[in-house]
Design brief:
four-stranded mixed sheet, Histidine-containing Protein, Chain: A, 149 residues, Membrane-bound Lytic Murein Transglycosylase D, Chain A, alpha+beta, 26% helix, two-stranded antiparallel ribbon
Length: 149
C-alpha cells in the first residue's frame, strides 16, 4: 500500500511527540484504538518521524484508516503501510486539506464539477477521525474513496 506523507507540524498532539519525533508506538496504537480501529494484528515501529506498519488489517479501508489515525498526529512525516489485508477493496486516494477547503470544495476538485454533494462519502470514509464535516484543518490528510457507480 506504500508510503503516505503527512504534515508533521499538524494533527493530534500525543504525549512525547514533537515536530522532530513521532510519539511512541504504544501511544500511536492508543490513538488508532481510540477511533475504534482494530490493531490486534498490527505491528507499529517508530523511526524518528516515520511510522512503519506491518502485519494484518481486517480490510483495505481499515488499513487506510489506521494509517490516517497515526499519520495525522504531530511529529509524523510519513507512514509506510506494509499491512496485508483480509478483505481487499479499492484503494482510496489521499488529499491534503488546504486553507479555505471544505469537504464540498474538495469533492468538486477530486470528483469533478457538479459532484460537491459527494462530500458525504468523503466524510463517511474518514469517520471516526472526522466527527463533523466542517471540522477539517489545513495539513490534514483525508481518504478520498472512489465514487460508486
Amino acid at each position: 500500500m506504500g508510503l503516505w506523507n503527512f504534515a508533521k507540524s499538524v494533527g493530534a498532539s500525543l504525549f512525547g511527540a514533537s515536530e522532530a519525533q513521532a510519539a511512541s508506538a504504544d501511544d500511536l496504537k492508543k490513538e488508532a484504538a481510540k477511533h475504534g480501529l482494530d490493531l490486534s494484528g498490527v505491528e507499529v515501529a517508530v523511526e524518528g518521524d516515520k511510522i512503519v506498519l506491518s502485519g494484518r488489517a481486517l480490510s483495505t479501508e481499515e488499513a487506510e484508516k489506521i494509517v490516517l489515525a497515526m499519520g495525522n498526529t504531530t511529529g509524523v512525516a510519513s507512514v509506510e503501510n506494509n499491512l496485508a489485508v483480509d478483505k481487499a477493496g479499492a484503494e482510496s486516494k489521499t488529499y491534503e486539506v488546504k486553507k479555505g477547503d471544505t469537504l464540498w470544495k474538495i469533492s468538486e476538485e477530486v470528483y469533478g464539477k457538479g459532484k460537491g454533494g459527494e462530500y458525504e462519502g468523503i466524510f463517511e470514509a474518514n469517520k471516526p477521525m472526522l466527527s463533523h464535516p466542517d471540522k477539517i484543518y489545513p495539513g490534514q490528510v483525508l481518504r478520498i474513496p472512489p465514487l460508486e457507480d
